[in-house]
Structure formats: structure tokens, C-alpha cells
């Protein structure tokens, strides 16, 4: 689904933050992406999410070479990828419900066609009673769950999550991990970027370890 | 964490494998039905309508539209006054009959009047009688003057029809030369030319000022809109990341900023129109005479002037919308 071949990235004239990165995300797979802070986890996620282009190497997403994608192609591919940002990126002027429904709304779908689905998902992530409040009123954990729900609502083929348990207590972290594992069992490929060793120890999965710009895969 | 809620899902959704499995995973508890089926409320606009930047932009657009409107109105009013002014003077002409050489002045005057009346394009021709001529000379020669005892030229006032062209003056001049050799025709050409040159200069200066105001308006609106879109960059990014097409994002912003532009344009243009309307009608209401009666004529705005202000308001709104669209595309190029 995603394939990196000898990918290198540098910002401007600075040093390479990623060097010769080669790996793939197969369908129906589950993996953790880990490494020390500043090692390049978020950069790697951004490359997979098509919000950065590599300075060298080849990235292939859903069979398409990202170097040859036009703006509308990028939008179409993004609709097949769900992402949970570390800083949530919820829109403060939209309610929780509207934030979660946003990926469907930007596809210009009628609200009636997804209302039940969004309401249901919000209920399942425990935000059923918080759907009409604005994000500034939500707690960190609630924002996290809203961000996860937004990533899931369009039923992505790949889910990328950047430190999804960074703002929650260990109990909720375990529950969220189980949610991701369950998603994986239904066929979604999942990649979780985290430096939480305890979390990774709870589920035996492939690990992509990034250190000083180089990636090592432990299957 | 608050307890994860279990809700009674709609049948169609309950049959969905993914959600069903997630639901099975989560512990039961209080129902999360609070919001189910309560989304009949109007959804918030993706681009927030009430932001500080939005308010400031409305004010910038309104002020610049007002200034542009006042300039357009002033230029239109000056232009119409100047053209009335030159045409009034050009229409008042005179025939001068010089005495001497045993000429029967009264007969020559009568003939000149007849010649003038027979010329097409002449609306009216009237000889000034002795009394009127004496009154004209009064400032210089005093009262009780007997015009017949002095060799002063006598005048025929000729008013040209509004549609009379330069050929009327030529025809009349030729006819007089042939039939009344002692008469000469003065169409105030020199004065008219000076006046129309002055009027043209005034209008040209007005148009130059209008051009500058228009440029300043467009630049102000462009920069203010750019600033407003830049302030909304996080929204552009999130929309971009959740898979919105560039065209969709640009359309959302354009729609919002067109509304902002129309609001500001209507406010500024409306006030400018109100100012001109009041200036032309208020003196009537308070009984101080003709509206804005200036040295050069009556300063009122015709329909074209009002139309110009309206057009400027719409143009400013369009500039706002198009700028927002261009800025969004530029922002998107910067994100990816």
C-alpha cells in the first residue's frame, strides 16, 4: 500500500533528516513506528501522508508515484488515509460532531447521508454527550478521541496516528490501542508512531525503529 | 476517561462489521444517545463567519468603497456640471450690427433677426432695443443715454437650439455676410474653447484622482483579504489534510469572502450614495434653496453617477472574493 525506496529528506540546505529509508506497509498490517524524540517520526508520517515530498528516492502510495501526483490526486489519496495528529488539529469553531464529520463534508456529501454514522461513532468513542460542544471545552483525552473519530469516519485503508496515546492515562491508552487493533482486524493497515515502550509491549507487532534519520524494521 | 458509552445504533449501522466490533470492544455504560438525531440545526460554516479579522476586513472594504464612491460621485457631478456649463455658453451667441456709412441700423437689425430666424438650428433671435442697449452701456456712460446719438453697435441675441452643431454658426455667418454686410456674428468661440478646456482639465484631474483611489482601494482590499486568509491558515491546512480538493477549499473561502466584500461594499457604497442623495435633497427639505448650488452650477448626481458607485461596490466585493481564492491556492501550494 505504501512503499519507500531509498528515501532521503532534507529541509532547505540543512542536513538530511531522513537517509536511505526503505520499507513498505503491506495491506492488513499493524506496525509501531518508534524512536527517540526528534528522530524523524513525524517527518516520516508527513511523507506517507503526502504533505511533504522527498528530496530523493521513491515513494509509492496505493500504487501511485507521489512525485507524479496532481493536487486533486493528492486529495483523492488522502481520502483513503486517516491521520491522527499529535496536536489533534480540531477546528475550534466547529462542534465535535462537525469536526468528526468534516472528512465526509469536504467530499460534498449530504449531511443526512452520514448523520447516523457520525453520531454512532461519537457514541462509541464516548463523546455522545459532547457532540455539540466546541473543542476548547473538551479535555485532552476527549480531543484525542474526537481526532481519532475524525480519522476513522471515512473508513480509511491506512490509519496513521502520531502519538495517539500521548495525552491520555494508561487505562485509556490501552483502550485506544485495542481500538486500533480491532480496526486492524477489520482490514485497515495501522501505523502508530509512539515512544511509549509500555504501549508497544502490549501488542506484538512489527516495529519500525527510526534513529538519526535511518530506519530499521523488526518484523 | 469518561465511560465509553453504548448506544442503540440504527439498524443499518449496527449491521456494519467494523462499528459492531468496535462497539463490542468498548464497555457498556450510560447511553450516549444525547445527540442522536439532533442535527437538524444549521451546521457551522467551514470558514467561520464571525472573526476579528472578518470584522476588520468589512471595515476596510466599507471605508475604501466609501472613498471610491465619493470620488466617483464627485467626478460624475463635476463632469455633468462642466458639460452643462459649456453648452449653455455655447448656445448664447450674438450678432453685432455696426453703425456708420448712413446705415439704417433698425432695418439692418430687423434683417439680421430675420436671417438668424431663417437659419436652421437657431431657436430664438431677438434684437436688443435702444433701451436695453442703453442699460448695457450704463455702467460706463451713465443713465439717460440716447443710443441713437452715439455710434454704438447694436446687438441681436441669438439662442441656438440644443442640438445645433458648429455648422449652424457657419451658415449664419455666411448668410449675414451676404445679406447684412454690416453685421458680424460672435459665437463666443474663444470663450467656449477656454471653458471646455477648463472643464476637460477638471474632469481629467478628477479621473486621475479616481484612478489613484481605485488603485488604493484594490491594494488595500487585496492586502486585508490576504491577511484574513493567512490568519485562517490552520483551517486551510485541516481541510487539506482531511482530503478536501483544492477547488472545494478555495470555493469555501471565496464564498465567505464574497459575503464579507458585499457586506463592506454595501455599507461603504450605501453611505456614499446616501451622502449624495442627502446633499441633493436636504436643502429642499430645510428650505435653503437649490441643492448644492455652486459657482459653476447645481451639483447633483445623475443615475449614471449612482450606478458608478454601485458598480464600484460590486467590483470591490469581487476583488475581495477573487483575492481570497488566489491566496488560498497560494497557501495550499505552501502547505504541500
Question: Topology, please?
Answer:
The complex is a heterodimer of chains A (about 220) and B (about 325).
Chain A: E1 2-10, E2 16-25, E3 30-34, H1 41-48, E4 56-61, E5 64-65, H2 71-78, E6 81-84, H3 96-105, H4 111-124, H5 140-152, E7 158-162, H6 170-185, E8 189-193, H7 197-201, E9 206-211, E10 214-218
Parallel strand pairs in A: 3-8, 3-9, 6-7, 7-8
Antiparallel strand pairs in A: 1-2, 1-4, 4-5, 9-10
Chain B: H1 11-14, H2 17-25, H3 52-91, E1 92-97, H4 105-118, E2 122-127, H5 130-141, E3 154-160, H6 166-179, E4 183-186, H7 189-231, H8 233-241, H9 246-286, E5 293-294, E6 297-298, H10 303-335
Antiparallel strand pairs in B: 1-3, 1-4, 2-3, 5-6
Can you offer a commentary on this structure?
The complex is a heterodimer of chains A (219) and B (336). With 219 residues, chain A is of the alpha/beta class. Chain A has two domains: 1-80 and 156-219, P-loop containing nucleotide triphosphate hydrolases (Rossmann fold, 3-Layer(aba) Sandwich), CATH 3.40.50; 91-154, no CATH class. Chain A is 34% helix and 26% strand. Chain A is built from seven helices and ten strands. Chain A has helices spanning 41-48, 71-78, 96-105, 111-124, 140-152, 170-185, 197-201, and strands at residues 2-10, 16-25, 30-34, 56-61, 64-65, 81-84, 158-162, 189-193, 206-211, 214-218. In chain A, a hairpin with a 5-residue loop joins β1 (2-10) and β2 (16-25). In chain A, α3 packs parallel to α5. The longest helix of chain A is centred in the last third of the chain and has 16 residues, at 170-185. Chain A is globular. Chain B is of the alpha+beta class. Chain B has two domains: 52-86 and 194-335, no CATH class; 99-181, no CATH class. Helix content of chain B is 65%, strand content 8%. Chain B has helices at 11-14, 17-25, 52-91, 105-118, 130-141, 166-179, 189-231, 233-241, 246-286, 303-335; strands at residues 92-97, 122-127, 154-160, 183-186, 293-294, 297-298. A four-stranded antiparallel sheet of chain B has the order 2-3-1-4. In chain B, a hairpin with a 2-residue loop joins β5 (293-294) and β6. Chain B is rod-shaped and about 125 Å long. Chain B starts with 10 loop residues before the first helix and ends with a helix. Chain A: This is Cell division ATP-binding protein FtsE. Chain A: Part of the ABC transporter FtsEX involved in cellular division. Important for assembly or stability of the septal ring. Chain A: One of its GO terms (molecular function) is transmembrane transporter activity.
Amino acid at each position: 500500500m505504501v512503499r519507500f525506496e531509498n528515501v532521503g529528506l532534507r529541509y532547505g540546505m540543512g542536513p538530511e533528516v531522513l537517509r536511505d529509508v526503505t520499507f513498505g506497509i503491506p495491506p492488513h498490517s499493524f506496525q509501531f513506528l518508534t524512536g527517540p524524540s526528534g528522530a524523524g517520526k513525524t517527518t516520516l508520517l508527513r511523507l506517507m501522508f503526502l504533505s511533504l515530498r522527498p528530496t530523493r528516492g521513491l515513494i509509492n502510495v496505493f500504487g501511485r508515484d507521489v512525485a507524479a501526483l496532481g493536487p486533486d490526486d493528492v486529495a483523492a489519496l488522502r481520502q483513503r488515509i486517516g491521520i491522527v495528529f499529535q496536536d489533534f488539529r480540531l477546528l475550534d469553531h466547529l462542534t465535535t460532531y462537525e469536526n468528526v464529520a468534516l472528512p465526509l463534508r469536504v467530499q460534498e456529501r449530504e449531511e443526512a447521508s452520514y448523520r447516523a454514522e457520525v453520531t454512532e461513532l461519537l457514541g462509541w468513542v464516548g463523546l455522545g454527550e459532547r457532540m455539540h460542544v466546541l473543542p476548547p471545552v473538551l479535555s485532552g483525552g476527549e480531543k484525542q478521541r474526537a481526532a481519532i473519530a475524525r480519522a476513522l469516519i471515512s473508513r480509511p485503508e491506512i490509519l496513521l496516528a502520531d502519538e495517539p496515546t500521548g495525552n491520555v492515562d494508561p487505562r485509556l491508552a490501552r483502550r485506544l490501542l485495542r481500538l486500533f487493533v480491532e480496526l486492524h482486524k477489520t482490514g485497515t493497515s495501522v501505523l502508530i508512531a509512539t515512544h511509549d515502550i509500555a504501549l508497544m509491549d502490549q501488542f506484538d507487532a512489527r516495529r519500525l525503529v527510526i534513529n538519526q534519520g535511518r530506519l530499521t524494521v523488526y518484523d | 476517561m469518561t465511560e465509553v458509552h453504548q448506544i442503540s445504533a440504527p439498524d443499518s449501522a449496527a449491521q456494519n462489521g467494523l462499528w459492531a466490533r468496535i462497539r463490542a470492544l468498548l464497555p457498556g455504560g450510560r447511553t450516549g444517545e444525547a445527540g442522536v438525531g439532533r442535527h437538524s440545526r444549521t451546521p457551522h460554516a467551514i470558514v467561520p463567519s464571525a472573526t476579528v479579522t472578518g470584522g476588520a476586513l468589512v471595515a476596510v472594504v466599507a471605508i475604501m468603497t466609501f472613498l471610491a464612491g465619493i470620488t466617483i460621485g464627485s467626478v460624475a457631478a463635476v463632469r455633468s456640471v462642466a458639460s452643462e456649463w459649456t453648452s449653455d455658453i455655447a448656445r448664447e451667441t450674438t450678432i453685432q450690427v455696426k453703425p456708420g456709412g448712413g446705415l439704417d441700423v433698425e432695418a439692418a437689425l430687423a434683417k439680421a433677426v430675420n436671417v438668424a430666424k431663417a437659419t436652421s438650428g437657431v431657436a430664438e433671435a431677438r434684437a436688443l432695443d435702444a433701451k436695453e442697449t442703453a442699460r448695457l452701456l450704463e455702467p460706463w456712460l451713465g443713465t439717460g443715454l440716447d443710443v441713437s446719438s452715439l455710434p454704438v453697435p447694436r446687438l441681436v441675441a441669438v439662442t441656438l437650439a440644443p442640438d445645433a452643431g458648429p455648422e449652424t454658426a457657419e451658415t449664419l455667418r455666411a448668410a449675414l455676410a451676404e445679406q447684412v454686410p454690416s453685421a458680424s456674428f460672435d459665437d463666443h468661440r474663444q470663450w467656449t474653447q477656454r471653458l471646455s478646456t477648463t472643464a476637460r482639465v477638471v474632469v481629467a484631474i478628477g479621473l486621475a484622482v479616481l484612478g489613484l483611489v481605485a488603485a488604493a482601494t484594490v491594494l488595500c482590499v487585496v492586502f486585508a483579504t490576504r491577511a484574513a486568509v493567512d490568519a485562517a491558515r490552520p483551517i486551510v491546512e485541516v481541510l487539506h489534510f482531511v482530503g478536501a480538493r483544492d477547488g472545494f477549499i478555495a470555493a469555501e473561502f471565496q464564498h465567505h469572502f464574497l459575503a464579507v466584500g458585499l457586506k463592506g461594499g454595501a455599507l461603504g457604497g450605501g453611505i456614499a450614495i446616501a451622502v449624495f442623495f442627502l446633499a441633493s435633497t436636504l436643502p429642499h427639505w430645510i428650505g435653503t434653496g437649490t441643492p448644492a448650488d455652486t459657482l459653476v452650477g447645481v451639483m447633483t448626481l445623475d443615475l449614471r453617477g449612482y450606478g458608478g458607485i454601485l458598480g464600484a461596490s460590486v467590483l470591490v466585493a469581487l476583488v475581495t472574493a477573487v483575492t481570497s481564492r488566489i491566496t488560498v491556492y497560494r497557501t495550499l501550494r505552501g502547505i504541500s
